[in-house]
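#lab-general

N.A. 3:47 PM
ok so I finally got the sequence cleaned up, no stray characters, all 253 residues accounted for. can someone with queue access submit it? mine expired

B.Y. 3:52 PM
send it over

N.A. 3:53 PM
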Amino acid sequence: MISHTFRRGLVASFVLGLSVTNALSAQGPNTAAFRAGLVVTPMRSNNGPMDFLQWVALRWPVYSAGTRYRVLRAAAPNGPWVLEHEVAGVVDTIPRMPPSVVVYFRVVALHQETMVKSIALDTTNMASTTTVASTMVGTIGGYSFSISGLCSVTPPSTVKFSWARVPNANGYRLRVLLLVPSDTSTTVPQPSVLVRDTVLVQTNVVAGKYTYVVEPQYDIANWPGPGQTLSLYGPGLVRMRVNVGPGMGPGCG
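B.Y. 4:20 PM
back already:
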């Protein structure tokens, strides 16, 4: 019968692309403590309320002197497991985690035989935590805008917006709302616009009263599994209003 320890070694070896030869054959002086000692702690990003994504701190006991470690994470207890990175110490911090989700971790102790070949000696038991909830709130931030000609010119018009950069955002989604002329309390969603920079130039804008809401976009690589990317959107941090066309009001703002 294959032992649980050897199965863990095989899983780690296949996940990491390591040599399976002699995996787990060497027992470290701190084997039992290493296997049971992984502690994961959710923590807020150092950007505070201006960061939508959160961090996780990890620590574990030393396996043996000179051992290196590889950190695996997963979005489910059975994987698939994603290789975060390799470290020499026994503490690590994982940034850019989605808020308010359960994340699973394992740490693999490694013996490096050559520059390109490592052997998985052992792995910790799985540990999990729920990441911190985001405290980012929607606020009206600094921005600038310009419209070709004036707001009162005959449409279609060209609208240009720019806004302040949001820490760690990969891009921005602009939700566009068109005010219903017959009901000033009702808006109709228009197609959203995705941009990578902090500038939007939109041409052929027809007559109407519009509201543009800027939401930061965050791309999480290898989530929930290898090769996949999860895109999340924070709350609207900038709200810009523009009136286009004759009879649409005094202007923009």
